Amino acid sequence: MSHPTTLSQAIDRYLTFLQAEQNKSPLTIRSYRQSLDLLLKLSQIESPLLFDKQTIRIYKTALHSFRARNGRELSIRTKNHHLTILRAFLRYLIQEEEMEVLPPDRIQRFKEEQRKVKVLFADDLALLLSSPDSNTREGKRDKAILELFFSTGMRLAELRSINRTDLNFKTREISVRGKRGKVRVVFLSDAACDALQKYLESRLDHLAPLFIAHLQQATFEMPPGEKFRISANMIYRIVKRYARQAGILSNPSPHTLRHSFATDLLRNGADLRSVQELLGHKDLSTTQIYTHVTNPQLKEVHRKFHGR
């Protein structure tokens, strides 16, 4: 089959393939679109057939020079994210369109330092979770958000997408659809159950989303009320606001609570495979970033043999 060979058209076909054939989420499609638009801008080639060692080198150099809207250089991890998407795009062209393009394994990613994991210690975590004013409906909602993050280790997008019907208080479980559409079960602690029940009892509406904005206005809205679903940006700001209110200097984010959930499990003896399942990690190597901060054996060696 003959295909137009402009890079822009090939990208459009790839994004259609991701949506139609692989059922990628709108969030993933948007991320790929942004990355491939950057490729179009920085590579300055008109056909995917023109990718070779030299054009890839030019693209990598351009990634080093590129500045985000805030004026900062892209992190190594972000640069590698763009290279990973380029590799996936080339793999599609070879496998689905049978184009003779540069093999994806010829594109080497940049060497990354091991990721640093930011976690909250027990005192700071207690301060954060107790910061919302539980005498107000907004405070009850925000308390439930914070408790649910720490109880389940959910990603921000996963927590935002939950509906009220997804909750099962009898089994204390929630089925969550994570990355790549993978469904996993997460579990509610006593504190999370209590916070969620108090929040839901304060709701005067019958809308589907578990967490909504404009609680008062939502009272008069008919279901499903998708437009009232809380935004990812608002959830992010909620965590930041209560961290500042609690005087926590480490500037935690929603993902810090996910890290704290994982390290809390490992410190209390959970095995790595179980934590991998609870976090929804595809590869065990991703979960292993937590082991260097939770290895009790190393701590005991230090205590026993360190000179001072």
Helix content: 40-55%
- The CATH homologous superfamily of the largest domain corresponds to Intergrase catalytic core
Radius of gyration, in angstroms, nearest whole number: 23 Å
Number of helices: 14
Q: Quick one: overall form?
A: globular
Average pLDDT, to the nearest integer?
90
Count of spatially separate domains: 2
What is the topology, as strand order, of the major beta sheet? 1-2-3
Content-based structural category: mainly alpha
Distance between the termini: 73 Å
Main β sheet profile: 3 strands, antiparallel
CATH class of the largest domain: Mainly Alpha
What is the gist of this entry?
This protein has 308 residues and is mainly alpha-helical. It has 14 helices and 3 strands. It folds into 2 domains: 7-106, Orthogonal Bundle (DNA polymerase, domain 1), CATH 1.10.150; 122-297, Intergrase catalytic core (hpI Integrase, Chain A, Orthogonal Bundle).
Protein model, in words:
The protein is globular and about 60 Å long. The chain has helices at residues 7-20, 26-43, 53-65, 76-95, 122-129, 137-152, 156-161, 190-202, 215-218, 232-245, 254-267, 272-279, 284-287, 296-305, and strands spanning 167-168, 173-177, 183-187. Strands 1-2-3 form a three-stranded antiparallel beta sheet, with no helix packed on it. Strand 1 (167-168) and strand 2 form a beta hairpin. 53% of the residues lie in helices and 4% in strands. Helix 6 (137-152) packs across helix 11 (254-267).
